[in-house]
Amino acid sequence: MTLGHDKLSFLNTPTRLDRMNRISDDLGINLFLKRDDLTNFGTGGNKLRKLEYLAKDAMDKGATMLLTVGGPQTNHGRLTGAVAAKYGLKAAIVAVGAYPGELSANLLLDGIMGCPVYLAAEDGVHTEDELLHKAVRQVTEEWEAKGEKIYYIPMGGSNELGILGYYDCAVELAEQTAQMGLTDVRVITTVGSMGTYMGLQVGTKNEKLPLHITGIGIEPFEGGIVNKAEKYFEKVKEFYGLSLDIPARDFDLIEDYHFGAYNNPVKEVREAMYYMGRKEAIILDPCYTGKTFTGIVDMAKTGKIKPGENVIMIHTGGIPGIYTKHHRIEMEKELESYIHII
Ligand SMILES: Cc1ncc(COP(=O)(O)O)c(C=O)c1O
């Protein structure tokens, strides 16, 4: 029970907290990975912690089907489909975007787990939000007509309830770091729809945990990332009736590593992924964790992360992203020389 809410508790927590020895030596920092990519359904990822709460709420409300939205290759959609499969619910994903012409990455996994994906094509007239809204209404009506009771989960599971998964993770991290004797710990996470960061931040502040939370944005945010955080926090505060204030200066959010767009192929990001793969045998993804790790490497090299600083990067998953066509094509060009026909 966290802030008065129950969850399903299906996760293999605590997830591992592993020191990256070779990269720590190389960068002169003390780097750990929180292995939330190794969570146990649907190939894992951060959204499962949120879904423990969201799916519980859905089931308590008598829902028979989870409906969510995202990009066509949404990790959150894939994991919503995974939890639905595990609990005998139906699920569907609604996205705006074109079919890439091949059933790969998350689209493939969605199908394997029996979760349909509805792709609404851009029309050059309506905004993405308008198209998404219309498509959600259409798909909802279609399934309600078949007798399903729909529970709608917003983008990334990032609403007030969704933050609780990472509120719990902050508590878990404080316990793990205390057991390991680590002090002055900075936790760094990716920021997309922001539920992960907000959960860690609110958990840390509300429970007075000895952690510092840094978020790295992976896309430009209209009005700025701190502004988005302040608005989100106000909603959370009101929802739970928290007597907690977080001033803007306490939102340590970095906008230097989004590389201009969401899910764009970026050479520096791929290089950071190769660096992690070749030093630690850990796979990052090009959309989220690759950008975050690019930021960590740069911050260590430029002294924004201090020599010897204890840094925990949350590995939020997203590995299927390496198999999306537009990323894979770029990697194929760079890695083809690793193939030798003899
Ligand atoms: C792999 C991965 N990492 C990080 C994030 C960002 O998490 P949040 O949306 O809670 O900011 C996402 C969101 O989709 C994700 O799929």
Automatic annotation (TrEMBL):
<protein>
    <submittedName>
        <fullName>Pyridoxal-phosphate dependent enzyme</fullName>
    </submittedName>
</protein>
<dbReference type="InterPro" id="IPR001926">
    <property type="entry name" value="TrpB-like_PALP"/>
</dbReference>
<feature type="modified residue" description="N6-(pyridoxal phosphate)lysine">
    <location>
        <position position="47"/>
    </location>
</feature>
<dbReference type="GO" id="GO:0019148">
    <property type="term" value="F:D-cysteine desulfhydrase activity"/>
</dbReference>
<dbReference type="InterPro" id="IPR036052">
    <property type="entry name" value="TrpB-like_PALP_sf"/>
</dbReference>
<feature type="domain" description="Tryptophan synthase beta chain-like PALP">
    <location>
        <begin position="10"/>
        <end position="317"/>
    </location>
</feature>
<dbReference type="Pfam" id="PF00291">
    <property type="entry name" value="PALP"/>
</dbReference>
<dbReference type="InterPro" id="IPR027278">
    <property type="entry name" value="ACCD_DCysDesulf"/>
</dbReference>
<keyword id="KW-0663">Pyridoxal phosphate</keyword>
<dbReference type="GO" id="GO:1901605">
    <property type="term" value="P:alpha-amino acid metabolic process"/>
</dbReference>
<comment type="similarity">
    <text>Belongs to the ACC deaminase/D-cysteine desulfhydrase family.</text>
</comment>
